């Protein structure tokens, strides 16, 4: 493609609403343009990258034995009601009525649709195993779209679904997808970590997230450098021994009530009473499927609602409102404590075992208790791991090394769904003995446009994007520095035609612009190889081959330039 004909529009300044580097550079390099909140147009340059990523995904999915199909983006409400996810996902669903008054929604994911298809088409164990996938636009009404294509209302996703006759078959299908994901992210040039993860609203009991470490990531992962174990912070286990960093003193002091007017938060109470947050115990009143429960957790630690929800085995977990708190504790919100609670289940995180003579709410306005102790002042019958892991905690696997936390971008997620959807939607088959059984399912997603953003987050410098060769929009750009110099133009045209004839994606910057502008745009767009045709080098019968990644440059003959490019692209 010639720059004079290409629809490439670069920007000199960062957009005012762009927060992260990938969003800034995708806008500045002319990959995308914003239409509205959470919705972007892919310009030709960005669309080329998107198609290259899709190509890699498609090749590796086909190689794994998965078969491609395409499902509708419009879903009937009834399917989602059968699995209970119509109410569960609530406002995240983009819903509408058609002209006949039927309730429809735009698909945020396709478990219901693929399982409905399987229920109609799979009848016998001879039809299994099978894995089907698509590359499709998804829709979610994100409450706060941000970070460009990393969190948007519509996005492109590869979603695959496996159907097996037994758990052993699911294990094989799951491993095939896991291996395919590793090949995909390797080929895309990403540095990634596969971590144990929470299944969330997808369901199932086993899942892995493929995470790209990045300062712009919204997720947090736990890593152990000693044994290599990794997990999402949401599911990482906190060992009980991690909570004990000192010996509880034998002396239990006299419990006292202290006036704390208008002081309710951990930070303010700590400051007011001149104690560390770890010497406070928070009493959080929640509702699990409508039933009240009191959760105790140390003041310097954070409740992990995913762990709590799993422990309680509930579908809906929510924090109690002020009226419910008043009814349960007798006091206002912000002053709840564990003493005197009746008719409510009390569960404590293990961290509370590590503190004595601690501060807790007094269950009355503007008052706290000091020198509170478990067993003497109140009883706890249920202890559990209910907090988020912290950097420096002991690794739950090797139990030796302190773990590290890193922010990361999720680019893929795999799930063992079991029969969660097949039972609800009737995806059954007859086994060898003629008995009817539910298909055992797996689900596997990749955020296609997230791969683009994650790659930019990992591969950039002050001048712009540094594309890995496999997903670069153009692998080479030819830069004649002076379009008024006849020999420069002729040689640039000849190299451009040769590379095109060899099937290499190449861009010719034939604009009558200054050399500095051409270099800036080439660097901004991140094209891996730059062939510079300048008069000074031509005087020595040489051209310059520059590599965007390390900014190295070699003076070579025209013939050697072509040979070097071919060797690099092998």
Describe the model:
There is one protein chain. The protein has 570 residues and is an alpha+beta fold. It has 3 domains: 50-207 and 409-456, Bira Bifunctional Protein, Domain 2 (BirA Bifunctional Protein, domain 2), CATH 3.30.930.10; 244-384, YbaK/aminoacyl-tRNA synthetase-associated domain (YbaK protein, Alpha-Beta Complex), CATH 3.90.960; 474-568, Rossmann fold. The protein contains 15 helices and 31 strands. The strands form 8 sheets. Strands 3, 7, 8, 9, 10, 11, 12, 21 and 24 form a 9-stranded mixed β-sheet that branches. A 5-stranded mixed β-sheet has the order 16-14-15-17-20. A 5-stranded mixed β-sheet has the order 28-27-29-30-31, sandwiched between helices. β30 and β31 (553-556) form a beta hairpin. α1 crosses α11. The radius of gyration is 29 Å and the shape is globular.
The structural class is alpha+beta
CATH level-4 homologous superfamily of the largest domain: Bira Bifunctional Protein, Domain 2
From the N-terminal CA to the C-terminal CA, the straight-line distance is 22 Å
List the uncertain runs: none
Which properties best describe this structure?
570 residues; alpha+beta; BirA Bifunctional Protein, domain 2; YbaK protein; Rossmann fold; 3 domains; nine-stranded mixed sheet; five-stranded mixed sheet; 27% helix; globular
Put the structure in a nutshell.
By secondary structure, the chain is α+β, with helices and mostly antiparallel strands. The protein contains 15 helices and 31 strands.
Please specify the SSE layout and strand pairing.
Blueprint: H1 21-28, E1 32-36, E2 39-42, H2 44-63, E3 67-68, E4 74-76, H3 77-83, H4 85-89, E5 94-97, E6 103-106, H5 111-121, E7 130-139, E8 154-164, H6 167-187, E9 193-196, E10 206-213, E11 219-223, E12 230-232, E13 256-259, H7 266-273, E14 281-288, E15 291-298, H8 305-312, E16 317-319, H9 322-329, E17 345-349, E18 358-361, E19 367-372, E20 382-384, E21 404-418, H10 420-425, E22 428-430, E23 436-438, E24 440-447, H11 448-458, E25 460-461, E26 464-465, E27 476-480, H12 486-501, E28 506-508, H13 515-525, E29 529-533, H14 535-538, E30 543-547, E31 553-556, H15 558-568
Parallel strand pairs: 3-7, 15-17, 17-20, 27-28, 27-29
Antiparallel strand pairs: 1-2, 4-6, 5-6, 7-8, 8-24, 9-10, 10-21, 11-12, 11-21, 13-19, 14-15, 14-16, 18-19, 21-24, 22-23, 25-26, 29-30, 30-31
Helix pairs in contact: 1-11, 2-6, 2-11
